[in-house]
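Justification of computing resources. Each target in the renewal requires a structure prediction run like the one illustrated here; the chain below, 257 residues long, is used simply to show the kind of job we budget for.
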Amino acid sequence: MHIVHRGFDRLELSIEANIPPELFDYLDPIRKEAEEARESRAVSYGGADFDLFPNGVQGYRFVLQGGPLEVTWFFKKPNARDPWGIRLVVGSLFLATQGLGMVRAYIAKTLERLGVRYGPRQVSIGRTDFCVDILAPEFELTPENFVIHSHSNRARWPNHEIWDMAKVDADTDLSGLRSHLDVDKVKAVHKAHHIKLRMTRAVGNCTTLAALEGIESDDRQDDMERMGQRLRAERQADPARAANELSKAKERYRFVG
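Resulting structure tokens:
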């Protein structure tokens, strides 16, 4: 039995600060535009790049995705009576590839670019997930050992050795922990995943269209060739629209690679 991997999976923080009025004035009309279009908008402010989503959530006026490494920012409308105006969620990709130290530096730099001032005592940790993967070939689940309502005293049983191993490992200094994975390779995997997903959907849409148009299975090869011609004709009929849609798609997936 041994540890094969350990690392952070998630980090949620709240900041006791509001975004400056200038940033609100910049984001608000773009959010309204995104809401009307029902799609995200690319925004850049102070050298920081984001995707601004078309909707807010739970009292936060703005929700933004920052870069390709799974950092989501939540901003409230500035209000002196509600000083906790910023929340952010860091996903496992950033934490695993760059480490906690780099995440802290990224957060500080981004808030500086946005014109947000705060101190170390104005940061509250809402949640942090840390996982320890242990290879235990001999481990077997014993249903009788699970804690249920009618046997709450079972929580007093001795710890399993797997738990003790994980606890000892988690008690060490975790600030410099990272996987040392190549970020570009991780991004390449994400890009391949997006391409595969879109191709699957495209094939599915073509199959559905063929069914609606009464195409038989024996005619599918010819139908796919005709489909390509029809798509080409659609693009050639309105090249300006085609170019605009391509530009929007590139902007939407610019963080993917």
